[in-house]
Amino acid sequence: MTTDPRAITRPDDSLLTYYVLVSLCALIAFPVVFIPLFIRFKTLRYEFDDEGVKMSWGFFFRREVYLTYRRIQDIHVNRNLLERWMGLAKVPIQTASGTSGPTMKIEGIRNPEPLRDFLYERMKGAREDEGVRSPGTSGEDEALAILREIRDALRALSSNTSGSGS
After folding, report:
1. How far apart are CA 107 and CA 12, in angstroms?
2. Which pTM value belongs to this model?
3. Dihedral of the CA atoms 23, 67, 103, 132 (nearest 10)?
4. pLDDT tens readout for residues 97-151
5. Which of 50, 64, 90, 105 could make an S-S bridge to 78, C-beta 3.0–4.6 Å?
6. 2 to each of 31, 112, 113, how far by Cα in Å?
7. Are 54 and 114 in contact (CB under 8 A)?
């Protein structure tokens, strides 16, 4: 069992057993369900660096998702009954992308709490760094200055039109 989340590069091997059990529930459609899950299991890779999380999978259609810690909005730990019995969990990560589902779902994780805590720490640290670089007051001051310029321009325009029209 790994306690450093950055060392996680692959799902736990018992995820394949989970996929077999889920596919067996499809009875006659077992091959149709199992083959894509098997390919997903064999090609699924995770990478945690200083800036974000990368997840890639797929053989025929290779997909890669990279999320910076700054974009992460929420992190959950999900386990259904079968996953709890097998000691597995999913860690869905949501961003403010506007989709209803998670942007990334890290699955096949044993002991997901250190990973969740690691992601929360990185997410919080990234936002604090962002706050140091651009304090909210300077952005508000800039917006307020632009609004004042617009107000003054509208007043000047209004006084010119009312004075020349009558």
Report:
1. 9
2. 0.70
3. 150
4. 777 778 899 999 999 999 999 999 998 887 777 665 555 555 667 888 888 889 8
5. 90
6. 33, 10, 12
7. no
